[in-house]
């Protein structure tokens, strides 16, 4: 009975809550552009009509044919779980960072150790992200598939989950786990590394005293998100296609390399970068919101400046 009050009163509990708040802020800020990104990444042949290949044209088409709320399709799945996933990611990063900082007796965490902690965070959170992304992508692609069929389509996340469990078993929820790890482990090193570097450039000394402004948080967070997405985007295209592929006796893509090879052969090399502009714009908005919500929540819960991801509290390196 006393676990939760004690947990939430400590540094780890506050980081966990702040990570959850940041995750929710990111979903709400970026889901419409995420729907556009997912649809742009899909094979042309898989769509029932000649879907636009430009983001602005696709947005107009979605609003005209499906209504504005269609841009928020699939949002309930990530909102229901993203708080926990983002909390795990940020707290894993903070815990690994403090361990590495103490181990190497660093006054300020080195960028090498920032990258290592980022890899750890990115790898662990894929266990939560993979099924969430799978459900979200299936929901976001429903309209194109159903318009060419008279079959009754599922109407929500639970319908998607039941369908996957019935046809593919529990392992089906983790379709795309390998490509998600390959994408997220290194991209999180870039993600947290860019954030720490950018905030220090914009507000020198803030990695020690944690007194950066909201503008610094928004800008550094936005740059971190945009940079990490450029770094991993071709892998994200492959991931979206593999997870968007419905189970069949003869799947079009039989693995990561096969998906990449066939996509390039059928649609050209540019297919690996289709929708990049939308993804980068969304990433800037979303991750500016995530880092700002995270940092401001920590400051609200602990009036003493928590210092960016809880790492600026001085550590005794003389021991």
From TrEMBL:
- Where is the protein situated, by its record's location annotation? Mitochondrion membrane
* UniProt keyword list: Membrane, Mitochondrion, Repeat, Transmembrane, Transmembrane helix, Transport
**PROSITE patterns named among the record's database cross-references:** SOLCAR (PS50920)
Topological type in the membrane? Multi-pass membrane protein
Q: Does the keyword Repeat apply?
A: yes
Pfam short name (any one): Mito_carr
* Solcar repeat spans: 10-99, 109-201, 212-300
One GO cellular component this record assigns the protein to is: mitochondrial membrane
Could you tell me which InterPro entries the record lists for this protein? MCP, MCP_dom_sf, MCP_transmembrane, Mitochondrial_Carrier
**Origin superkingdom:** Eukaryota
Q: Family, per the entry?
A: Belongs to the mitochondrial carrier (TC 2.A.29) family.
Known PANTHER family for this protein?
MITOCHONDRIAL BASIC AMINO ACIDS TRANSPORTER-RELATED, SLC (SOLUTE CARRIER) HOMOLOG
What this protein is called in its record is Mitochondrial carrier protein
């Amino acid at each position: 009975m006393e676990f939760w009050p004690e947990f939430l009163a400590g540094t780890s509990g506050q980081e966990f809550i702040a990570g959850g708040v940041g995750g929710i802020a990111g979903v709400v800020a970026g889901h419409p552009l995420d729907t556009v990104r997912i649809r742009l990444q899909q094979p042309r042949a898989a769509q029932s009509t000649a879907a636009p290949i430009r983001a602005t044209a696709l947005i107009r088409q979605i609003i005209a044919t499906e209504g504005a709320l269609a841009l928020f399709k699939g949002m309930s799945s990530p909102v229901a779980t993203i708080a926990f996933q983002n909390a795990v990611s940020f707290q894993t990063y903070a815990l690994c960072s403090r361990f590495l900082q103490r181990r190497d007796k660093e006054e300020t965490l080195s960028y090498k150790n920032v990258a290592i902690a980022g890899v750890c965070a990115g790898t662990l959170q894929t266990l939560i992200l993979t099924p969430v992304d799978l459900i979200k992508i299936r929901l976001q692609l429903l309209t194109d598939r159903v318009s060419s069929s008279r079959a009754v389509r599922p109407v929500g996340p639970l319908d998607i989950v039941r369908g996957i469990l019935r046809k593919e078993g529990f392992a089906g929820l983790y379709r795309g786990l390998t490509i998600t790890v390959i994408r997220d482990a290194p991209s999180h090193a870039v993600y947290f590394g860019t954030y720490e570097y950018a905030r220090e450039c914009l507000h020198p000394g803030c990695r020690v005293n944690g007194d950066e402004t909201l503008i610094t948080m928004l800008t550094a967070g936005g740059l971190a998100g945009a940079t990490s997405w450029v770094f991993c985007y071709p892998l994200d295209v492959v991931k979206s296609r593999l997870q968007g592929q419905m189970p069949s006796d003869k799947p079009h893509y039989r693995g990561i390399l096969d998906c990449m090879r066939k996509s390039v052969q059928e649609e050209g090399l540019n297919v690996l970068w289709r929708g990049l502009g939308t993804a980068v714009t969304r990433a800037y908005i979303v991750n500016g919101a995530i880092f700002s919500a995270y940092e401001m929540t920590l400051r609200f819960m602990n009036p003493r400046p928590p210092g960016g991801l809880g790492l600026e509290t001085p550590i005794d390196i003389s021991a």
